[in-house]
């Protein structure tokens, strides 16, 4: 499934050129043209979907193994694998994509803020039960 207006779908089809480093039946990977560091690569499922929850599992099975191969091929020792969902979560292109971003030093690569919150153990316990229950129910469907 693809979208006629999606830039990543156009790249997959070859309508827009890319620096492709890997392709299979379900995954496509290419160098980012606005890299945060040398070797910054995008790994995308060939199924068009805006968010991770829109992509069938069989299209996601190869994504992390491909990101791992690319990390090794670029020589990245330290790196981030990043995937954003939705505009307020910093997703710019509305097609699921994973960034493999080498972090060769403090200045290059991904910079991350981590605004940790204080933990309310009662609320955390309630959330744990809620999420665990929903996951268990979804596995039996």
From TrEMBL:
What domain of life?
A: Eukaryota
Kindly list the organism's lineage. Answer: Eukaryota, Fungi, Dikarya, Ascomycota, Pezizomycotina
Name any Gene Ontology BP term: nucleotide metabolic process
Q: Name one GO molecular function term.
A: hydrolase activity
Residue ranges constituting the HIT domain according to the UniProt record: 7-110
Q: Does the keyword ATP-binding apply?
A: no
The name under which this protein is listed is: Adenosine 5'-monophosphoramidase HNT1
Indicate the residues that form the catalytic site.
97
Q: Which family does it belong to?
A: Belongs to the HINT family.
Report keywords, A-Z.
Answer: Hydrolase, Magnesium, Nucleotide-binding
Where is motif Histidine triad motif found? 95-99
Return any one Pfam family short name. Answer: HIT
Entry cofactors: Mg(2+)
Checking CDD domains in the record gives:
HINT_subgroup
Organism per entry: Aspergillus leporis
